[in-house]
Amino acid sequence: MLFKKKLQQQIAENTSNKYVIHCMKIMVIIMLGIWILNILNVFPINKKVVFLCMVASLIVYIIGMICWTFIDLNKDFVKYLIILWTVIITTIMETGLTFHAILASVLPILFCSLYSSKKLMIYTSVLTITSTFISVIVGYHYGICDANMTLLPGEPLSVYINKAGEFTRTQINNNLWFSLIVFFIFPRCIIYTMCIIVCFNIGKLNRNNVEYAKHMEVLAEIDGMTGLFNKSKYLSVISNDYNEVQQVSVIFWDINNLKVINDTNGHEEGDLLIRTVANNILNLTDENKQAFRIGGDEFIMILKNADETETLKTIEQWKNNINSIKHEYPFEISASIGYASGQGKDLQQIIKQSDENMYIDKKKYHESANN
């Protein structure tokens, strides 16, 4: 179960990794469009700054895309590299274009919400705050909108415009570092922190809803009394899941004397017998052994890639487990067992053969009991 949960998490993170990479591809295409519009003077801002931003961003983007080609996206550390990659690109854009690209810093936060890792959330928070320091301070000296930070218009525009429409604020800010940190970096970091918390909880809510839906789907496939897969799941599996499997074995159980125990000891004891037999079958299951309750007292296990030796070993293990607990119950615990093996494409015939072998075993059981 733990292996299955970890596998599902790997698949989810792999999907998130691919989605982030795809989104960054779209972002770069949009950036190239902005660059072209800047060259055509549709966006009349400093062409040199835009050029340097675009070239630096493209270099980082291409390096990242080359890395993702050779790195296994299922690895746990990859998501940290991808978030770092997105932060570097957005930092470059913010540093050069400053206020024109201020919302770009939210992208890594949004991407972080696709994952279920608290460590990644903290990691993204640290990177985003660091990115903000870099983009504000470096952007002040080399970015396009440094005048906004220099003049520090902390009042409505009307305060700095006289009746003649002239701008009256001409004094350069004397407390530059204080102003940059207190009025620009600190407020943005607070907003980023709020965004991270909101995005993470939205992502968590969505993941909980997905997990709940999966849980309900699993419950629909489980037999409520025994915990084994039910007959609906069994019918689905034998139709779709084993056609390409080279080697398949089937074990068929049918509980002995259930009707006698129901009539003699009552249905509660009969249900206990069913659960006991089933529980010992369930304990033998793994990713290659699926078990089903297909009738009131009938159970089937399908073993993938198992030869006759492995099949007999599984049957013997079940018998040993039952023998070790027989003394704890006031009734006999036994089941007739049949098995058969073959190729996955012949699963229906293998099941039929195991059923027939089970009835042969049951006949022997009754003959032995009568003697």
Would you kindly provide a written description of the structure presented here, covering whatever features stand out?
- With 371 residues, this protein is of the alpha+beta class.
- It has 2 domains: 2-217, no CATH class; 231-370, Alpha-Beta Plaits (2-Layer Sandwich), CATH 3.30.70.270.
- It is 64% helix and 8% strand.
- It has 12 helices and 4 strands.
- It has helices at 2-39, 47-70, 78-97, 107-112, 118-142, 146-151, 176-219, 231-240, 258-265, 267-282, 308-325, 347-370; strands at 248-255, 289-293, 298-304, 335-342.
- A 4-stranded antiparallel beta sheet has the order 2-3-1-4, sandwiched between helices.
- The two termini are 45 Å apart.
- Category from helices, strands and their pairing: alpha+beta
What's the count of strands? Answer: 4
Poorly predicted runs are none
> How do the SSEs run, as a string of H and E?
HHHHHHHHEHHEEHEH
Please bin the fraction of helical residues. Answer: 55-70%
Count of separate DSSP helical elements: 12
Strand-residue proportion:
5-15%
Overall pLDDT score: 84
